[in-house]
Amino acid sequence: TQLAKISLTMGPPVVKTEGAIPLGYVYVDVAGIDLGSYVEKAMRTVNQKVKIPPGYYLEWSGQWEYMQRAKATLKYVVPLTLLIILVLLYSNFKSFGKTMIVMLSLPFALVGGFWFIYLLHYNTSVAVWVGFIALAGVASETGVVMIVYLDEVYDRRKREGTMNTSQDLYDGIIEGAVMRVRPKMMTVTAIIAGLLPIMWSHGTGSDVMKRIAAPMVGGMVTSTILTLIVIPVVYEMWRGWEMRHALPTSTTTQGKEGTEV
User: Fold this and answer.
1) pLDDT at 140
2) Residues 6+ apart with CB under 8 A from 222
3) What is the DSSP string of 55-102?
């Protein structure tokens, strides 16, 4: 009693410290709302209704902190991924026109991915963006194969001398696009068949894996439809523009009276 007054009172069972400062955690479980929206709303409420004494401060940590770090990383990863795809496509085709036609297939795939996660009521998260990055690679691959088939028919008909009019170009594109239908359907079927078991799974880690697989499942559906329809049309417009603006070939005929050009 000469040193201290001892009494019983309510308080934390353990006094934690960090940086020689007493620390207390408040744990929150979130349900029915995404984590980012909840924390933003909680921040506004705390700032309006809680007065922090001098010497005290609040930090928002846990999964929200990890999400913010991942979000900052994705700001660099996503543009870098698109840049790498663009560079690889150009190094393969050596043509800016073909590269941009393949890049055109990416929005078609993203449309289905966003619609599918909307129908499943998934919020955007790190796992969802990882799925979109994987989807971008697969969509680029299918676009490349389409261009390869169209180029093969175009170059063959060019060598045979049967690629002179817009109708010849149209017939060649139809031939190349039809050849692409079966491998395209095989690719999409294999990808979706491999991802559907993930969408039906339950258990530890299934929530994260579903959000990675969902953009790819939805994106493959719209990519299949739009790639088979839109890319041949854009290819026809591009090749048709090249044919219309090709330099005319001059012919020289040697006769008795002189040279006529």
Assistant:
1) 83
2) 108, 109, 111, 112, 113, 115
3) T------THHHHHHHHHHHHHHHHHHHHHHHHHHHHHHH--HHHHHHH
Q: What is the DSSP annotation of the chain?
A: --S---------SS-EEETTEEE--------SS-HHHHHHHHHHHHHHH--PPTT------THHHHHHHHHHHHHHHHHHHHHHHHHHHHHHH--HHHHHHHHTHHHHHHHHHHHHHHHTTPPP-HHHHHHHHHHHHHHHHHHHHHHHHHHHHHHHHHHHT---SHHHHHHHHHHHHHHHHHHHHHHHHHHHHHHHHHHH--STTHHHHHHHHHHHHHHHHHHHHHHHHHHHHHHHHHHHHHHHTSPPPP--EEETTEEE-
172, 194, 196 from 28: Cα distances, Å: 62, 36, 33
Q: How far apart are CA 142 and CA 128, in angstroms?
A: 21
pTM of the predicted structure, to 2 decimals: 0.67
Residue found by looking up tokens 């692409």 in the block = 180
| Residue 83 neighbours by CB distance under 10 Å | 10
**Beta carbons within 8 Å of 2's beta carbon, 6+ residues apart:** none
Backbone angles phi, psi at 15, to 5 degrees: -100, 110
Tens of pLDDT, residues 173-230? 888 888 878 887 888 888 888 888 888 888 777 888 888 899 988 888 888 887 788 8
For residues 75 and 69, give the distance between their C-alpha atoms in angstroms, rounded to a whole number. Answer: 10
pLDDT at 260 (0 to 100): 44
Calpha distance 156→145 (Å, rounded): 17
Q: Cα separation of 37 and 4, whole Å?
A: 47
